[in-house]
Amino acid sequence: MGLLATGTPLEWPEAKKVADHVRDWGIEQLLAIWRRAKGKERDALLWGDEIEYLVVCYDDEEGRVRLSLRQADILKALAEDEKLLSQGGGVPDLQRGHTNTGDTAPTFHPEFGRFMLEATPGKPWGIGFKDLLDVEPNMKRRRDIAKEHMAPSESPITLTTFPRLGSPDQPITPYYPPSGPKLRSQFVPDEIANPHIRFPTLAANIRARRGRKVQVNVPVFKDEKTPWPWWDPSVKYDLHNWPEDDDVRNGAVKENQIHMDAMAFGMGSCCLQITFQAKNIEEGRKMYDQLSPLGPVLLALTAATPIYKGFLADTDVRWNQISRAVDDRTPEELGEKPLRDNRWHIPKSRYASNSTYIAQDPRLRQEYLDPELIIDPALKQRLLDGGMDDLLATHFAHLFIRDPIVVFAEDLKELDLDAADHFENLQSTNWQHMRFKPPPPGSDTGWRVEFRPMEIQLTDFENAAFAIFIVLVTRAILSFDLNFYIPIRRVTENMETAHARDAVNREKFWFRKNPFPEKHTKGAEEAGSRGPSRPASPKGPVEAEHALLSIDEIVNGQTAPANGATSSRATQAISKAPDDLFPGLIPLVESYLDSVNVDVETRCELAQYLSLISKRASGELWTAAKWLRGFVRGHEEYKADSVVSEKMTYDLVKAVERVAREEGRDGFGKEMFGR
Amino acid sequence: MKLVLSTSNIMGGGPSVIRRAAFEKSNTELTTALRGNIVESQQGVSIENTDGTDNRTHESPPPFEAWTSLEDSNLFIPAVDFTHSGLAEDRPQYDITVKLFYLPDVPTEQRGAHTREAIDLVLKELHVPSIDLLIVSFPGVAFDADDEEEDEASDDVASGRSSSENGEIDDIDVMLETWRALEKLHKEGIIARLGLSEFGTQRLMKFLPKTSIRPSVDQINVRDCCVVPKPLILYAKQEEIELLTHNDCTNILPRGTLRELLGPGHSGAGILADHEREKGLHGEVEPQWVVKYTAVVKNRGVVENKGYFAVAKLV
Fold this sequence. Notes:
Chain A: Its EC number is 6.3.2.2. Chain A: InterPro entries: GCS (IPR004308), Gln_synth/guanido_kin_cat_dom (IPR014746). Chain A: This is Glutamate--cysteine ligase. Chain A: Pathway: Sulfur metabolism; glutathione biosynthesis; glutathione from L-cysteine and L-glutamate: step 1/2. The complex is a heterodimer of chains A (about 675) and B (about 325). Chain A has about 675 residues and is an alpha+beta fold. Chain A has a domain at about 460-520 and about 540-675. Chain A is built from 22 helices and 17 strands. In chain A, the strands form five sheets. In chain A, strands 1, 2, 3, 4, 5, 6, 9, 14 and 15 form a nine-stranded mixed β-sheet that branches. A two-stranded antiparallel sheet of chain A has the order 7-8. In chain A, strand 1 (about 45-60) and strand 2 (about 65-70) form a beta hairpin. Chain B has one domain (about 1-315). Chain B is about 25% helix and about 25% strand. Chain B has six helices and ten strands, in the order E-H-E-E-E-H-E-H-E-H-E-H-E-H-E-E. Chain B has a ten-stranded mixed β-sheet with strand order 2-3-1-10-9-4-5-6-7-8, with helices on both faces. Chain B is globular. Chains A and B meet through helix 13, helix 17, helix 18 and helix 19 of A and helix 1, strand 8 and strand 10 of B.
């Protein structure tokens, strides 16, 4: 979450009137930032992870678990404690069991959901391999510190979504009735959102702009005794508190779909996001492009979201639900009505997979770009006139097709070119799976890229594994000059594919077959000092460059023989068509590690992380989604009808906490860890 | 005549750097990269000769004289252009590690000279005055985690029980002899730190007291990295020796492999002749040493330049 600026927020009709104003100033601020920072060079690799928690509250006597809405109190306790920390005392034995002296204390942040908490390391990580060893203990320490500042009955858990959020029993504490003026949800109260004025305004203005409530429909999982066709039994059709109560009478509810109607159902999900600082703008643009095709793969690999609103879903990941939960497009923009008041038909929500590539890279072929990308031509022209190149101007002119949602009246008085508030207003409400982040004004921070698709994992072991894996993949990309480009529309397609139940083992994804630079020839070589790799201009049909691969093939490589295959078979495969067999992300990372000095302890630790990811990809180990679904279906109370009851939710959340603590060492959840 | 084979920068050079599967021999990187560099150089010549018309696939390979260079009875395979710097940024940005493989069947008294030759080539290639770390690999020394568990008094660690593949074993005194040459390079300011590979506790205990510049690194094969014996970890910590991982095999360039690489035939470079009547060079190749160099941008963890030189005698 960005900075929580405050002031007098404009209601939607007023905010709409000043949208152009905010965009114009946002573009001017962007140009000022870009001019100042485009020559910034030689920044170190610094990176950070964000862990998000649900705060749950147990009622052990009744066998119930609810979401705790005490975010503000918990943050206050943490803040006061941090003061004590900086004064050098007052917190005895902060990190039992995970001693790591000399560390900067982690920091905690509010999130959209009032039942959520976000924690980041106190200072960014580097690439020193010892740093990598600190990540997991630091995550564990964050969890411990969070827990210590909660009530005894409360716990932070790293589950993407609360299984019964929005159920009729209102599993929140303290209790508030649903159907408030901001969200107008029939399932959750306004108090479900962080009370900071930014958040209710965000939700209310998205709804107002859209002209109705958001519609978050997820296919229900059809089990043996699930009534079919299935209509969400928790929907009330006879509410008349708000005009939006008509939505469900006008077809918002769909057959065989779990129906949800508020931003909290999406933005209340926990993610694992990683941000990298690049050496310069050029490297940042390259990382943005090269990580983009990996997004859907990592989404499927980290799948952890099989339950919504008390029902098993037929999908495994959170992504589309968040996308729909913040979809502010009008019927005209959605193509449901002819364009009259709106400028464009917009194919994607503000929260969606990327639609642009931005690197000035000779390997980026015109064919990879979206031919129907929507941009604001006037704003693009302004960026071009300001000196920005076409690709980057196109990217931002695409982000700026959206309206600003939360506008504070006070901010419109004077344009401050040393600030970034108007730019960030648009930038930070474009929730794509990659984010290209210019240096914030007045700081020494460099150009950064944020990798956003991953789901939070149940344990810190897994969260550290995936965070570090992505870091190592970026190092392999830069070291080997890898090329993962496929047409951006294929990435969008992959993002949909990643939603399918058990997509990690059952689906195939478009992926580039040969990630290596074009073979160079000695005669035509050597423009710079960087040695051989001046890529030749690409040739051949784009369609021949990529193929449908399983996640196993993408992660472990196409030549890696499945269980027991002989080496001769694999050798044969290599000699046949080495350029057409994808080598695998893990072998690429291993090769990178073979090329740098890594101490035995670190390498051993990294081997455990890589092994986890390798086995998740091969199906030998289960994703959290598969395990959670299995837990529900194996529960004594489960009636094979897709319903996840209160008691099942209680047991499930307890189980999740046990897994987070034991990480499979006690044999519980060993399907996920193999130990 | 001396043959100087090189890979040039193999980063970004494609599949040769990628470990495809665990069963693959770890010298595949070296041989594939050497072959790749040869083929590219041959193609470069073909292109120049044919004015860009691409019919090289049907041609026989160009004569090796066209893409190699002979300097003072050193045949560079392929010709190396030392005029471009191998590094984009200033020297202090990099961590430069060099690993020198002494090969079996090479008289040990030549190692001093070989070391200097190898380091000179790397300095010339990378356009730097010094390197950060030189790790040496002695032939036949193989780390064996199980041996570590044995009786500390056991005296035959250096006498061959822990070695397997290559037969030839150096004793500590011979290795120390070599070490003196490394110490000299250190004192000259050319090498900042020295390292060993595959040394177990007992070998280290014998070795350390007799050095004047102590090794600061001991490299262990990655497949053993999770089973490194506790005594070694403790001893290394106590002696301030970093235990690092590698994925090289000790017998990195067997004679047969080199002969095949340079010989006639489909996969050869067409430099060595098989029979008296064939065109090409005649004689036996005797691999002398192999050196691997790696330049990593320190604060970004990016491997910018990595390559090998391999030197053989033709007699």
